[in-house]
Amino acid sequence: MRTWRSTAAVAAPATASASKAGRIAAEPAAPETSIEVSAQYGGLPVMGTQAEKITRPVLPPIIVDRNDTTATGGVGAQFYFAHLEDPAHTKISTDHPDVLQVIPGYKAPNDGEFTCGAHALQLGSAHIKIVPSPEDPNQKPVDVDITITR
Predict the structure, then answer these.
(1) Would you say residue 6 has pLDDT above 50?
(2) Are 53 and 39 in contact (CB under 8 A)?
(3) CA–CA dist 12, 6 (Å, integer)
Protein backbone atom coordinates (compact mmCIF):
# COMPACT_ATOMS: atom_id res chain seq x y z
CA MET A 1 0.00 0.00 0.00
CA ARG A 2 1.33 3.46 -0.88
CA THR A 3 0.51 6.31 1.48
CA TRP A 4 0.87 10.00 0.67
CA ARG A 5 0.61 12.69 3.28
CA SER A 6 0.58 16.28 2.11
CA THR A 7 -0.21 19.31 4.20
CA ALA A 8 0.29 23.03 3.76
CA ALA A 9 -0.76 26.23 5.45
CA VAL A 10 -2.53 27.39 2.28
CA ALA A 11 -4.53 24.25 1.57
CA ALA A 12 -6.80 22.03 3.57
CA PRO A 13 -4.56 19.35 5.07
CA ALA A 14 -5.42 15.78 4.20
CA THR A 15 -4.03 12.30 4.25
CA ALA A 16 -4.75 10.17 1.22
CA SER A 17 -4.06 6.49 0.76
CA ALA A 18 -4.50 4.27 -2.26
CA SER A 19 -4.85 0.50 -2.08
CA LYS A 20 -3.75 -2.05 -4.64
CA ALA A 21 -7.34 -2.05 -5.93
CA GLY A 22 -7.07 1.67 -6.70
CA ARG A 23 -9.45 3.03 -4.05
CA ILE A 24 -8.50 6.38 -2.54
CA ALA A 25 -9.52 7.54 0.92
CA ALA A 26 -8.89 10.98 2.38
CA GLU A 27 -8.95 11.98 6.02
CA PRO A 28 -7.93 15.11 7.93
CA ALA A 29 -4.35 15.30 9.11
CA ALA A 30 -2.62 17.53 11.62
CA PRO A 31 -1.43 20.85 10.10
CA GLU A 32 2.21 20.59 9.06
CA THR A 33 4.50 21.96 6.42
CA SER A 34 6.05 18.76 5.11
CA ILE A 35 5.37 15.88 2.76
CA GLU A 36 5.98 12.31 3.84
CA VAL A 37 6.02 9.47 1.34
CA SER A 38 6.29 5.80 2.30
CA ALA A 39 5.83 2.79 0.07
CA GLN A 40 4.68 -0.68 1.08
CA TYR A 41 3.65 -3.69 -0.94
CA GLY A 42 1.56 -6.41 0.67
CA GLY A 43 2.19 -4.88 4.10
CA LEU A 44 5.96 -5.08 3.65
CA PRO A 45 8.10 -1.97 3.16
CA VAL A 46 9.59 -1.34 -0.24
CA MET A 47 13.30 -0.40 -0.37
CA GLY A 48 14.80 -2.47 2.45
CA THR A 49 13.55 -3.31 5.90
CA GLN A 50 11.96 0.07 6.62
CA ALA A 51 9.59 2.17 4.53
CA GLU A 52 11.38 4.94 2.69
CA LYS A 53 10.38 8.37 3.96
CA ILE A 54 10.99 11.65 2.18
CA THR A 55 10.28 14.90 3.99
CA ARG A 56 10.30 18.18 2.07
CA PRO A 57 9.01 21.58 3.15
CA VAL A 58 5.85 22.85 1.51
CA LEU A 59 6.07 26.60 0.94
CA PRO A 60 2.95 28.75 0.61
CA PRO A 61 2.88 31.04 -2.44
CA ILE A 62 3.94 34.65 -2.03
CA ILE A 63 1.22 36.99 -3.28
CA VAL A 64 2.55 40.21 -4.81
CA ASP A 65 0.07 43.04 -5.32
CA ARG A 66 0.37 45.17 -8.45
CA ASN A 67 1.32 48.14 -6.23
CA ASP A 68 4.20 46.32 -4.48
CA THR A 69 7.71 47.29 -5.60
CA THR A 70 9.69 44.64 -3.72
CA ALA A 71 9.25 41.05 -2.58
CA THR A 72 11.46 38.50 -0.86
CA GLY A 73 11.34 34.71 -0.78
CA GLY A 74 13.47 31.61 -0.52
CA VAL A 75 14.75 29.25 -3.18
CA GLY A 76 11.77 27.23 -4.42
CA ALA A 77 9.24 29.95 -3.58
CA GLN A 78 6.33 30.66 -5.92
CA PHE A 79 5.36 34.30 -6.50
CA TYR A 80 1.91 35.17 -7.87
CA PHE A 81 0.93 38.64 -9.05
CA ALA A 82 -2.52 39.74 -7.89
CA HIS A 83 -5.07 42.24 -9.19
CA LEU A 84 -4.24 42.00 -12.88
CA GLU A 85 -7.14 42.07 -15.33
CA ASP A 86 -7.13 39.47 -18.12
CA PRO A 87 -3.97 37.60 -16.96
CA ALA A 88 -3.97 35.42 -20.08
CA HIS A 89 -2.97 38.46 -22.15
CA THR A 90 -0.60 39.99 -19.61
CA LYS A 91 3.10 39.88 -20.50
CA ILE A 92 5.71 39.05 -17.84
CA SER A 93 9.51 39.12 -18.11
CA THR A 94 12.60 39.08 -15.91
CA ASP A 95 16.13 40.38 -16.29
CA HIS A 96 17.61 37.27 -14.58
CA PRO A 97 15.96 34.05 -15.81
CA ASP A 98 18.66 32.11 -13.93
CA VAL A 99 17.22 33.45 -10.63
CA LEU A 100 13.48 33.56 -11.46
CA GLN A 101 11.57 31.45 -13.95
CA VAL A 102 8.54 33.44 -15.14
CA ILE A 103 5.18 31.73 -15.43
CA PRO A 104 2.83 33.42 -17.92
CA GLY A 105 -0.84 33.81 -17.08
CA TYR A 106 -3.25 31.65 -19.04
CA LYS A 107 -6.88 30.71 -19.48
CA ALA A 108 -7.82 27.06 -19.34
CA PRO A 109 -10.99 25.95 -21.13
CA ASN A 110 -13.79 25.34 -18.61
CA ASP A 111 -11.34 25.90 -15.75
CA GLY A 112 -10.84 29.64 -15.32
CA GLU A 113 -8.01 32.13 -15.61
CA PHE A 114 -4.66 31.81 -13.88
CA THR A 115 -2.47 34.77 -12.98
CA CYS A 116 1.15 35.12 -13.99
CA GLY A 117 3.90 34.33 -11.53
CA ALA A 118 7.53 33.39 -10.99
CA HIS A 119 9.42 30.45 -9.49
CA ALA A 120 12.62 31.13 -7.48
CA LEU A 121 15.44 28.97 -8.87
CA GLN A 122 18.50 30.17 -6.94
CA LEU A 123 19.84 32.87 -4.61
CA GLY A 124 20.06 36.37 -6.07
CA SER A 125 17.98 39.32 -7.16
CA ALA A 126 15.86 39.82 -10.24
CA HIS A 127 13.56 42.47 -11.65
CA ILE A 128 10.09 41.47 -12.89
CA LYS A 129 8.25 43.62 -15.40
CA ILE A 130 4.59 43.00 -16.11
CA VAL A 131 2.84 44.74 -19.00
CA PRO A 132 -0.94 44.64 -18.43
CA SER A 133 -3.26 43.32 -21.11
CA PRO A 134 -5.04 45.84 -23.35
CA GLU A 135 -8.26 44.98 -21.44
CA ASP A 136 -6.82 46.14 -18.10
CA PRO A 137 -8.17 49.61 -17.19
CA ASN A 138 -4.92 50.33 -15.33
CA GLN A 139 -2.32 50.36 -18.10
CA LYS A 140 0.57 51.19 -15.76
CA PRO A 141 3.30 48.51 -16.03
CA VAL A 142 4.14 46.62 -12.84
CA ASP A 143 7.81 46.66 -11.78
CA VAL A 144 8.90 44.48 -8.86
CA ASP A 145 12.40 43.79 -7.52
CA ILE A 146 12.52 40.28 -6.03
CA THR A 147 15.28 39.05 -3.73
CA ILE A 148 15.80 35.32 -3.24
CA THR A 149 17.41 34.38 0.09
CA ARG A 150 18.00 31.10 1.92
Answers:
(1) no
(2) no
(3) 9
